[in-house]
Specification:
alpha+beta; 6-stranded antiparallel β-sheet; two-stranded antiparallel ribbon; 7 helices; 8 strands; CRISPR-assoc_prot_TM1791; RAMP_III_fam; antiviral defense
Length: about 270
């Protein structure tokens, strides 16, 4: 059951965030006023505590819950950002300028199942062309080495996992579900702000830091899957997926440390 006394964070960030913004603040280049306006909005979001929301989580349900397998992963410093492609910017001073993915029902940040599937598939050779033969062979070796099977047909495994090849019914395919926050340490704060400083072509021009919303370190996400039999076992699939998530991370800016995950000790 959804707790209606707890504001939906997605609504706060994308809808309520700009409510009350006056023409005076926008037209008169009132940067001090803009910063004050958005500080109040930002504080409301950044002070959200997980214990106020955990009862709103949609628990993954199925007629046979034994079919659902989970992987628990914890964020590391500096945190995780997901959904930066969603527009969230007016150019005013003090606002958070990058998007974040929020689940519509719970209002909590989440990782869409389609993104989970895409992240996992990115290490398989199908995304590489003949011009990338060296990278393709490296990915094949990566998967074979982890599964300790040098004869494994990795292309066949990829087609089975991500395209459902070999399945007579869509119900016999592997399913990649949304990943949700399931544990937050300490005071329960799970969102924070951070800054990126883009540097333009002019080295003499002062860079303009971009403030954005992120998921803090030490936040546990649970990834949900329904595995079917096939080229490799369900246990092997789970272990392979966990390794991929550890090795390449999730979300945006992984090249500068965001989105790195470790196994949860829960």
């Amino acid at each position: 059951m959804i707790n209606t006394d707890t504001p939906n964070l997605g609504w706060l960030f994308y809808k309520e965030y700009y409510q009350g913004l006056t023409k005076d603040l926008i037209d008169n280049n009132n940067e001090k006023g803009q910063e004050g306006f958005f500080k109040e909005k930002n504080d409301k979001i950044l002070k959200a505590q997980f214990r106020s929301y955990h009862n709103t989580l949609v628990i993954v349900e199925d007629n046979n819950t034994n079919e659902i397998k989970t992987i628990e992963m914890k964020t590391t410093y500096p945190g995780l950002i997901m959904g930066t492609g969603v527009t969230h910017e007016t150019g005013l001073k003090g606002e958070m300028k990058l998007g974040l993915s929020f689940d519509y029902t719970t209002g909590l940040p989440y990782i869409p199942g389609s993104s989970v599937k895409g992240i996992l598939r990115s290490v398989f050779p199908g995304s590489f062309t003949k011009a990338d033969e060296e990278f393709k062979e490296a990915r094949i070796a990566y998967i074979r080495d982890h599964l300790d099977n040098q004869e494994l047909n990795v292309e066949e495994l990829e087609a089975e996992l991500f395209e459902g090849k070999g399945s007579e019914s869509i119900y016999d395919r592997d399913v990649f579900m949304d990943a949700h926050i399931t544990d937050v340490p300490g005071n329960g704060i799970f969102l924070g702000s951070d800054f990126l400083t883009p540097h333009g072509e002019n080295p003499l021009k002062n860079p303009n830091p971009i403030q954005f919303l992120k998921i803090l370190p030490e936040v546990t996400f649970t990834f949900y899957f329904k595995f079917k039999g096939g080229v490799i076992t369900e246990v092997q699939k789970r272990e392979l997926f966990e390794k991929i998530l550890k090795d390449i991370g999730v979300g945006a800016k992984t090249n500068v440390g965001y989105g790195q995950l470790v196994s949860s000790n829960k």
